[in-house]
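To whoever picks this up:

The nightly regression suite flagged Riboflavin biosynthesis protein RibD as changed. Nothing in the input moved, so I suspect the structure step. Input below, exactly as stored in the fixture:
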Amino acid sequence: MIHDDKRYMALALTLGRRGQGLCWPNPAVGCVIVKDGRIVGRGTTAPGGRPHAEPQALTQAGAAALGATVYVTLEPCSHYGKTPPCAEALIKAGVARVVVALRDNDPRVSGRGLKMLEDAGIDVTTGVLADEAAWDLKGFFLKTDAGRPFVTLKLAMTLDGRIATATGESKWITGPEARRRVHAQRANHDAVLVGGGTARADDPSLTVRDMGIAHQPVRVVASRRLDLPMDSVLAKTARDVPVWLVHGPDALEARKTSWSVAGATLLPCDLNGAQLDPGALLTALGAQGLTRVFCEGGGSLAASLLQAGLVDQLIVFTAGLALGAEGHPGIGALGVQKMAEAPRLKLATQERVGDDIMSVWRRP
Ligand code: AOF
Ligand code: ZN
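Regenerated output under the current build:
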């Protein structure tokens, strides 16, 4: 029984992950309905966050939901939003048992969904694969509790940690397999974020390409002064895929106007010294509903996020070439004097991708 619970919950987690990058501001929840050892319904929170996972799985299950066991990665909701509560839908369908990985921390729910189910006489089990679910849903939990999204920092670097030559050349350090993997990683985040220096140097499009994926993450540039060229790819395509610009109090007024006219969304942010404050930057993104942000540098933004302890996951692609001390570092100055001050992460996985190595590190 316990073994089966874990097995079905693992499937629900897989279904939930399919919604990552698509459901914000809502969590990407997965749901599996099992009757007499057969899976009769599956659901993932729909793009945009509604319908929720459970009603979709219930629709699939139909009459088979009566007396069934439901596996859901997050506590079923109890509030009347645009749709009636999922807990109520489960009760109406006559399910016998609900297995939940995690309690919802949304103040509108937080235990009320579980109580509704229990009060209706449904057998409720919680905490199955809770650690896995906490990791998958971390962006939603952080947004709700700390007001900021989950942050993945991705760096594609040489053996000696460089991201460009002294003259600024950066194409290409990693191979096509690694670059393709990055597109898949962009797709399971709500937004892609770069600093103004990178936007100026690379003129990036920051879109997901050649993956058979229609949905695009929001494109965010953090630029204190907003000195970003209006003939850039981002400016020209701001009406096709959203562009959000996080800027300081002293941003150029003329640029603010031009970018607004081009279709970008402007988000003001406080400074910390000469730079945008990384905490305030993420709070501004959390306030817009983002739960998962994929930061692709450059060196200064990477350093300021790391220094502030705001990198939840670091993905490093290491390529087999060296550019020497004159190259641009992937991580800028951190002000570290003592070993104890250095940001330290824990290795989660390591894998060969084409001719490069991908290592994934997590905040302990
Ligand atoms: C569920 N199943 O699949 C999801 C849930 O704005 P609403 O009405 O859509 O509600 C959003 C809240 O519902 C969200 O903050 C979270 O608490 C919960 N998300 N709940 O039962 C789901 N995505
Ligand atoms: Zn719901």
